[in-house]
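To illustrate the input format used throughout this study, we show a single complete record. The first block contains the structure-token representation of the backbone; no residue identities are included at this stage. The design step must infer an amino acid for every position from geometry alone.
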């Protein structure tokens, strides 16, 4: 509320005449008017709830026009979030209820309530019909029995039937009953707004209420203008601007402890980040488990045979499921050879990248029904028949056996393929066919791609969040990521559909995630679904309809407790033993567990989250549970998520927001006013998004600017991770990402270097600095940011300065209460034009003292790392 009133005052000041006319005395204004609420059919009904007002019900004034006061959050991202025929109703205590139809097929309607028509509580979507739709719902209140009656009609086979249900609380409903169509209230009216006829409900309301709606809309317009500011208009905004002088006084006597975990990474299997990415497996669909359902049937070629083909089209290649290697991996290949020389080819993930002189581990599960030894030649070949490497294996047994061999590559290539060529005619069954470089990150078996893993490690992330994002809570209950399916021998892991539209082998599973954390000294941060699927689920009745059934919550919670035992338990414990057998007898020292991922904060969520939180707290008080507060920096999920977390005493919450550079520039104070007694914050997903979603100096500098604010608030913001982390060229579902890659190359973005500079120059105490500018205009002040931290391990003082202006800033730095400074410090500068996507940081030395100068180039991020001879205070 405070934030809104500050912005409102600002609005009044800045909008001048327009705003002042809003604030004029009411004497010339009507004190009650008609309010019309409606939605339009534009963008397939996804534009939400609009209002218009009138004093005579003849001439209507749209607010906005068509400003969205309420947005439907049902179903999958985009086209499913429809609001059709909204019906607004005010009850006796003044609470507004809005109900609407969701689509033409589902037997559910939507409900939301509000006290002021501006802040709407989380929505619910009660299912009232099976196999029938629910159209034009309307609501009335019966004061005598204190209940609401909701009626609608269903259309099936050309006939309409009206139904109703009743509720006292919009949570519990009686089963739907038929009613005569003539009993419907039919209170919707048609009015003409800006020449268009719209249908909705009319209410007599106070002018004050309408005035608040108008102010809300105007404030939103004002904020959007600020947040849309970007460097393209800097030449106008800063025309004639002269270089700025800045005096930065760093006062060592004013310092506070901040989190030493601030910079980490967010790993999600999106954009082929895992299979075909960080996971070093070179063969695609190695277990023949690709399924039409991975792509919801939209790609008929996406099946068990995907990326495999017969050499020269000879012989036959079929799929069988009788007596598989493991029930979790039911499909396998039957290769029939009629002519020696033919065989099966795997195309890899857009080809296989191999390096001359390097060794590759090949393994295969095979069985030979003929009981005769069968030799298979294994070759890495080029498109023109070049042989890059060759080996062979012999299949002895009519039972499944794992056979291994090593290939040494004689020539580097980026588009090799793997051939399996039986040396005799007949059939052979094959499964889990794998090819790994021997050189994986830290040489682990089933390990990670070295170049990608090293690029991540170079950030010096203090934590790694995994396995997502939306992948964590999945598209529908069946798609929730279950950690137990991702450990153990690869042939026994349970692959699954990836909600980003492909397949996850789970070869990169919990053991590999924890091992990577261990390898690079990052805290593991697994995030587990809060017993509810993704808020944007489409599978299983729009996902949000249900959580894990209560009868299964006990075992669901036990899985989470088992994870903690698996990670931290002694080797004698059931789950600790499994970890040890997998190769890590030492505990992984798990300290943090995230529960939920930007879920809709519904009753279904709250009930399950509370159960999980209480169980973990009771059994493992040493674990810091991180709750979730929705996908935005504001709104009902944010507000209600925070309420729940505060009520339960959840130690930390996970916030997400992807915003424009303008938002980051104008919201640097976002955490300055956070209540330090409430839960700490993990900013789990953030990134600066420009139209068209590029990454460049402009996005990188707005990240860098905002990170100065996060460091300043490092006493309440404990962790932060840019998202998403990885994207394979040609397979991205989301832009921008921090690191792009192909099979052979890693292509970090400019934003990556900001993360790396922060990760490598983090501190654990924050030192207050004061910035005095020669030009103190707000537009200038907000584009220069400074943060000073000390790293207690090295005792280095680290000064970070961001300049998002088109001119240089000449700074004088005064260091107070800091002595014995080494005369030369390391300075790193990242700079370029705003649209530069190739800029790289340049590091050199700078002479420093207690009073030294440093120029900050136009559009730049400067880090100065100052060494001290001995500890100061
Ligand atoms: O980072 C990409 C996606 O953004 C995440 O999966 C989800 O949590 C968020 O909506």
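Output of the design step:
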């Amino acid at each position: 509320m405070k934030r809104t009133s500050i912005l409102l005052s600002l609005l009044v000041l800045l909008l001048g005449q327009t705003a002042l006319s809003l604030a004029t005395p009411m004497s010339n204004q009507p004190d009650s008017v008609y309010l019309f609420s409606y939605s339009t059919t534009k963008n397939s009904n996804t534009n939400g709830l609009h209002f218009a007002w009138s004093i005579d019900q003849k001439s209507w004034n749209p607010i906005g026009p068509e400003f969205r006061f309420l947005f439907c959050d049902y179903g999958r991202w985009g086209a499913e979030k429809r609001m059709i025929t909204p019906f607004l109703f005010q009850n006796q205590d003044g609470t507004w209820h809005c109900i609407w139809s969701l689509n033409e097929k589902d037997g559910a309607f939507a409900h939301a309530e509000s006290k002021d028509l501006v802040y709407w509580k989380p929505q619910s979507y009660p299912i009232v019909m099976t196999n029938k739709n629910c159209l034009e719902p309307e609501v009335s209140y019966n004061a005598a029995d204190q209940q609401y009656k909701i009626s609608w009609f269903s259309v099936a086979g050309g006939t309409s039937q009206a139904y109703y249900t009743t509720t006292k609380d919009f949570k519990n409903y009686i089963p739907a009953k038929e009613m005569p169509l003539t009993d419907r209230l039919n209170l919707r009216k048609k009015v003409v707004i800006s020449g268009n006829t719209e249908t909705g409900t009319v209410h007599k309301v106070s002018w004050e209420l309408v005035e608040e709606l108008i102010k809300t809309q105007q404030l939103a317009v004002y904020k959007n203008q600020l947040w849309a500011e970007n460097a393209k208009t800097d030449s106008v905004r800063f025309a004639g601007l002269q270089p700025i002088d800045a005096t930065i006084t760093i006062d060592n006597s004013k310092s506070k402890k901040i989190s030493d975990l601030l910079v980490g990474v967010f790993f999600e299997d999106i954009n082929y980040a895992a299979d075909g990415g960080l996971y070093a497996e070179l063969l695609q669909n190695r277990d023949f488990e690709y399924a039409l359902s991975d792509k919801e049937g939209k790609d008929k070629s996406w099946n068990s045979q995907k990326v495999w083909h017969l050499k020269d089209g000879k012989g036959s290649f079929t799929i069988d499921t009788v007596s598989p290697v493991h029930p979790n991996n039911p499909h396998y290949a039957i290769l029939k050879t009629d002519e020696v020389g033919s065989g099966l080819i795997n195309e890899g993930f857009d080809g296989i990248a191999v390096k001359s002189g390097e060794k590759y581990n090949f393994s295969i599960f095979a069985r030979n029904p003929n009981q005769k030894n069968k030799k298979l030649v294994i070759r890495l070949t080029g498109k023109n028949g070049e042989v890059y490497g060759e080996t062979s294996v012999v299949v002895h047994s009519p039972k499944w056996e794992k056979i291994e061999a090593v290939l040494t590559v004689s020539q580097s290539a980026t588009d090799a393929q793997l051939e399996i060529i039986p040396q005799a005619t007949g059939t052979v069954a094959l499964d889990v066919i794998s090819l790994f470089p021997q050189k994986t990150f830290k040489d682990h078996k089933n390990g990670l791609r070295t170049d990608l893993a090293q690029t991540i490690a170079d950030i010096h992330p203090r934590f790694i969040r995994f396995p997502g994002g939306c992948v964590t809570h999945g598209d529908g209950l069946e798609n929730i990521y279950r950690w137990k399916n991702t450990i153990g021998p690869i042939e026994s892991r349970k692959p699954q559909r990836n909600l980003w539209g492909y397949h996850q082998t789970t070869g990169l599973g919990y053991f590999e995630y924890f091992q990577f954390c261990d390898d690079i000294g990052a805290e593991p941060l697994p995030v587990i679904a809060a017993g509810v699927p993704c808020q944007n689920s489409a599978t299983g009745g729009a996902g949000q309809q249900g959580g894990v059934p209560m009868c299964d919550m006990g075992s669901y919670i036990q899985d989470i407790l088992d994870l903690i035992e698996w990670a931290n338990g002694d080797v004698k414990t059931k789950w600790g033993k499994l970890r040890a057998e997998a190769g890590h007898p030492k505990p992984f020292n798990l300290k943090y567990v995230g529960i939920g991922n930007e879920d809709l904060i519904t009753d279904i969520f709250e009930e399950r989250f509370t159960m999980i939180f209480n169980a973990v707290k009771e059994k493992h008080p040493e674990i810091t549970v991180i709750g979730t507060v929705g996908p935005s920096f504001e709104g009902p999920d944010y507000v209600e998520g925070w309420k729940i977390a505060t009520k339960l005493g959840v130690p930390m919450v996970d916030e997400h927001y992807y915003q424009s550079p303008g938002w980051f520039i104008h919201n640097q104070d976002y955490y300055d006013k956070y209540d330090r007694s409430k839960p700490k914050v993990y900013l789990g997903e953030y990134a600066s998004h420009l139209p068209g979603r590029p990454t460049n100096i402009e996005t990188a500098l707005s990240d860098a600017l905002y990170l100065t604010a996060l460091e300043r608030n490092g006493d309440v913001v404990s962790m932060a991770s840019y998202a998403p982390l990885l994207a394979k060229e040609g397979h991205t579902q989301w832009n921008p990402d921090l690191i792009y890659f192909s099979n052979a190359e890693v292509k970090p973005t400019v934003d990556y270097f900001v993360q790396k500079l922060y990760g490598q120059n983090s501190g654990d105490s924050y030192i207050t600095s004061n910035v005095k500018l020669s030009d103190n205009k707000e537009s200038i002040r907000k584009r220069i940011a400074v943060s000073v931290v000390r790293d207690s391990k090295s005792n280095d003082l680290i000064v970070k300065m961001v300049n998002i202006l088109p001119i240089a800033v000449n700074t004088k730095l005064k260091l107070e209460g800091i002595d014995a400074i080494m005369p030369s410090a390391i300075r790193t500068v990242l700079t370029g034009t705003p649209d530069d996507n190739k800029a790289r940081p340049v590091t050199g030395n700078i002479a420093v003292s207690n009073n030294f100068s440093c120029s900050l180039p136009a559009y730049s991020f400067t880090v100065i790392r100052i060494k001290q001879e001995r500890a100061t205070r």
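Structural context for interpreting the output: The longest strand covers residues 244-257. The pocket of alpha-L-arabinofuranose is lined by residues 268, 270, 468-470, 597-598, 631, 685, 723-724, 734 (CB under 6 Å).
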